[in-house]
Design goal:
The strands form 2 sheets. Strands 1-2 form a two-stranded antiparallel sheet. It has a two-stranded antiparallel sheet with strand order 3-4. It has a domain of about 30 residues. With about 60 residues, it is α+β, with helices and mostly antiparallel strands. The longest helix has 8 residues. About 20% of the residues lie in helices and about 10% in strands. The chain has 2 helices and 4 strands, in the order αββββα. The chain starts with 9 loop residues before the first helix and ends with a helix.
């Protein structure tokens, strides 16, 4: 088995691991009701996607 020929220092290990940070999720606003939604997803409150009603909203489903 291969062994490391040189010790990896603390600073080089931290530099290597600097790219492992988590990215913040991207959040958009619904064009119909201004609710926060994920990109490429239908709005959970009003059911609109790209300006068209695509999904029955949860509020109407709960009333039935």
């Amino acid at each position: 088995m291969g062994l490391p020929s040189q010790k990896r220092t603390k600073s080089s290990g931290k530099r290597r691991a600097s790219h492992f940070a988590l990215a913040k999720p991207v959040v958009n606003k619904c064009a119909n009701c201004n609710a926060s939604i994920l990109p490429h997803h239908a709005c959970q409150k009003c059911g609109f996607f790209k300006g068209e009603k695509k999904v029955a909203s949860k509020a109407k489903l709960n009333k039935k």
